[in-house]
Amino acid sequence: MAVRIITDSVSDLPGDLKSAYGIEVLPLMVNFGEVSYRDGIDLSPEAFFEKLKSAEMLPTTSQVNVGQFVECFERVIEAGDEAVVITLSSKLSGTYSAAVTAAEEMGSETISVIDSRFVSFGQGLLVLKAAEMAREGMSREAIVKACGQLTERLVMLIFVDTLTYLHKGGRLSGAEAMIGGLLSVKPILHVKDGALAPLDKVRGRKKSQKWFEQYLETHAPEFSEESVGFFHAADPQFMEEMIDVAAEMIHPSKIYRSTVGAVVGTHSGPGCVAFAYFRK
Q1: Which CATH architecture has domain 154-278?
Q2: Which GO terms label this protein's molecular function in UniProt (predicted)?
Q3: What is the rounded distance in angstroms from the CA atom of residue 185 to the CA atom of residue 48?
């Protein structure tokens, strides 16, 4: 009896990692007006950000529904397997609730649903940990317990390039966005209690990198040689610059690279870079 790891497309897992660990990913829907796309299937991150540039209104997203989870869980049960399902934060989508409802409808005790309380590759980093544990032969119950502990240690920082999309999404007033643009203010966000929240702001891209250097120095006792994740929204060059800083200062055992998808990208816009790690 195998333990399968299932997640949603907001985890932004690179294709090679999904294949390597046999992770099943259920897509959210991304809606530009009347046209809907399966996130990561019909619409790649690159195509999403191209469409976002010319969109007059922000796209909307639709959660993975109960029916999709039921179909997935039926396959798991028919194969005689168990599953650990890790969704994006329940504060940002109804996907977690849909997964719980589907598991209850199936009446099976072999499917466990976890609210990651994160998004994008912050969530993806937790999924990879679960997949590693499943590969090592750990039980479903042990994986669930370990993921609960890992979630408490997970940290995610997001360096935003423009305030335009935060304004479009209702996170900033027009005046704040205009002034921020004139002053070249770069917000720094983090995930707090399952939601995106402001952490700091700097003036200019170079100061974002300097802030990151100071953060790594200040939080040095938190870092171990565990894997870390970097992910970008249509700005691989800035991501690589931030990776160089981290590689020199904290020496992680492995650095994962990924691309921000539609959910975080809708509010961050192109040009953001994010960093996720597990505290000691």
Answers
A1: 2-Layer Sandwich (3.30)
A2: lipid binding
A3: 25
Cα–Cα distance, 65 to 87 (Å, whole number)? 12
CATH architecture of 3-153: 3-Layer(aba) Sandwich (3.40)
Measured from the Cβ of residue 251, the count of other Cβ atoms closer than 10 Å reads: 10
* pLDDT tens sequence across 29-42: 999 989 999 998 99
CB 104 within 8 Å of CB 76: no
Q: Measuring CA to CA, how many Å separate 229 from each of 54, 140, 208, 241?
A: 29, 24, 18, 14
CA count, 13 A, side-chain hemisphere, 106: 27
DSSP assignment of 209-249 equals HHHHHHHHHHTGGG--SS-EEEEESS-HHHHHHHHHHHHHH
Looking at 55-139, list the stretches that DSSP marks H as alpha helix, in order from N- to C-terminal side.
66-78, 95-106, 120-135
Tens digit of each residue's pLDDT (9 = 90 or more) over 44-55: 888 999 898 888
